[in-house]
Amino acid sequence: MSSIFTSIIVNIPYIIMALLSFNLLVIIHELGHFFLCKLNGVKVSEFSLGMGTKLFGIKGKETEYLIKVFPIGGYVKMEGEDGESNDPRAFTNKTPVQKLSIVSAGPIMNLILAVVLFASVGATKGYLLPIIKEVAPNSPAMHVGLQAGDKITKVNKVNIDRWDQFLNEVYTSKGKSLNIEVVRNSEVKKFSLTPVKDKKENIYLVGIHVSEVKKKFNFSEAVNYGFEQTISTIKQVFVFFSSLFKGEVSVNEVGGPISIIKISGKAAQAGFTTLMFFTAFLSVQLGIFNIIPFPALDGGWIFMLLFEIMSGKKLDENKVGTINYIGFMILMAVMVLVVIKDIINPLKL
């Protein structure tokens, strides 16, 4: 019992860092909605961090800023978002384009945050050159003749300057053949190999390990790296969702809020830059998840507003409010199930 208590005490700083990083994503997301509400003249009655019972709040001129008991999620409560309102500053009384800008701002802010965090990680850590240190026995790389010391320069006509670029091509290959060019003793050599899937990690691999040769980014390179990593992560998220819907990913490999906090805690233990990188990864996931066209999510609003803009027909606000309420209840039910799954059958870290 004492060892468990000691372990909890030792890990408290990392748990706090994990919660702070997770809530940073929520704050940035909701600030996107909040700022666009202000820009479009929409009245906001509540800005909440967390869900459930109110812990405390500060009342502003017209908005109450709340901290709630469960440090997961948050929301911006707008006048008229759940139905018709006579208030000219109500969300429901704004143009479809104004509404679209408001609901899109959250996911966009998450993607912007990801770019900033990835760029910061790149500027701090630099990047690994795509030079092979070691080839694994009986791997696709060994079978085609790749060797230690080879510098990878191109994959399927995509120029490769960094190791993470090469990994992205492998991870998103879906097991399709890759044409690889390397420089060996100043001579260009070409190989064709097919990545194999690691069932334990659920990723594609070719069986090579990178050297520890690093270079530093300048400012423009770091920003470019931030954009590249964000785009790469978006692709990986869609590959994951595709595998999930096809039944290629087990439900046991999917985690919820508790798993996210655990993994974030592990990332915090590995160092601040590792936590930043993982937070950027989560920020992309949150942004993409929120554009899924499901009621109550930003994507549900985006879908309905795009329909309204293209058709020229105004949607019944009360019906939209009812649909979003039902969607919200379904999401809450799913969240409860995911949390229960996290407790009963947590991800193995």
TrEMBL record:
E.C. numbers: 3.4.24.-
Principal subcellular localization: membrane
Lineage top rank: taxon: Bacteria
Keywords from the UniProt entry: Hydrolase, Membrane, Metal-binding, Metalloprotease, Protease, Transmembrane, Transmembrane helix, Zinc
Subcellular locations according to the entry: Membrane
Gene3D superfamilies (alphabetical): 2.30.42.10
UniProt name for this protein: Zinc metalloprotease
UniProt organism field: Clostridium tepidiprofundi DSM 19306
Lineage: Bacteria, Bacillati, Bacillota, Clostridia, Eubacteriales
Gene this protein is translated from: rasP_2
